[in-house]
Fold:
Amino acid sequence: MQRLACVLALWGYFAAGALHAETAPGWATAVTDIYVGREWNAGVMACARTEFTLQGGALTGHYWIGDKDPFEGDLDDFVPGDGQSGVFTWTDRYGTGTLYVRFAEDGQSFFSLWGEDAAHMSHPGYGLRGAQASVPGCNSATS
Structure:
């Protein structure tokens, strides 16, 4: 009986976490769009394009990085933080990790930090709202 109670308690804990990650905060609709910017990749600030969308009530994303060998990946399992911020799990051909994102109050830009185990100050990024946003040297690489 005690083992069953423990299993049910753990199931409840993980189910609550999964529900938390699937429910987008109220401000999420105001940031869904394409953002053009740069992300730290392979020792440089590479051109990047990120699209944030709502899927099944969850804030998700998809990104493209303008590397020598361009690649793309997905942002899932969003967990809201303070203000218009939160943490995604990123997944691409190099593995998975954590992406912290903070959107500007007006939703016109974001700042990010990423890492494999946790977001790192040494791996910054940013995006400017709109597919036509001007990021010097990046517009052809991210369209």
Remarks:
- The longest strand covers residues 44-55.
- The two ends are 58 Å apart (CA to CA).
